[in-house]
Amino acid sequence: MPKLNIFIVEDEPLIARVLKQTVQYIGHHVCGTATSFDGAVRGLQHAGADLIITDIMLEGEKTGVDLANYINKYLKIPFVFQSSVIDQLVIDEALKTDPLVFMPKPLCSRVLIDAIASAL
Fold it and tell me: Does 120 have pLDDT greater than 80?
């Protein structure tokens, strides 16, 4: 299986660490991390990401849905949502952005592994 460069956007440090460790454990590279929309946009410009894993709720005013719309418009990189959001309207808005996968929190390693495999 080829190694992917994966960019993680998560504002909860513990969850970000678990995501990073899991990605590395299964043999992929974390090419960057961010906690907000603005940080992600800056980081993604030079990260060389093959896949983005993003939460819906981020630091600041803009959300992961805003980031997904930006990715679709300017970057054309596949992305995966992972979130603890239970508001169906927010989930519906997120799904309209056409993520590869929507993973609910708490995160299951097997679901993450399958989501990354879908990017290949």
Answer: no
